[in-house]
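Marked as duplicate of an earlier ticket. Keeping the data here for the record.
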Amino acid sequence: MNNEGNRTKRRVCVFCASADGVGGEFRQAAAAVGRALAGNGWGLVYGGGHVGLMGALADAVIAAGGETIGVIPRALEEREVAHRHLTELYVVETMHERKQKMADYADAFVALPGGYGTLDEFFEVLTWSQLGIHAKPCVLVDFHGYFRQLLAFLDTAVKHGFLKQENRHLIRLANMPEEVVPLLEKLWAEPPRVPGRPDRGESPEP
């Protein structure tokens, strides 16, 4: 692990699939995000895999000379084919440890297209933000409208009173890979959100 004196300016945790998706566009988008992060001097924190979008993302960061930190549960080390050329690879025992370690290293969270695992990881950090556990940006990359119906569902949840509008706005949206870096720079420049007090029924500010 790089010591603190050599630490990159920022580290971004990216959640994405261990599959490639249909066609090559999603792999290209993941690689573009990786190049953008490394090109801006930011490190990558991710699930540690070498296959699917995870592999394309990490390989792009490595090729650009960036820092890569992978965290993978032992049970998935073979299934997701753990990447052996990262700056650091942590093998942990549980999914809970994986999520916590990635969150500890991250200054922001970005979700690319994926399935259950990607959604689980992204919505957990969103929930932590809603509860005031952290105030780190949470960005969804709606590449090719992949998350359009998910976003429509969240608007339905607001309409029916199961999600507060200010918490719906915790998701910040990028449509293309090249929008991720400027959006994160903008969000980091904003005054930090004041965490709410969930035990008193208060909501975090948007």
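See parent ticket for discussion. The mean pLDDT is 90.
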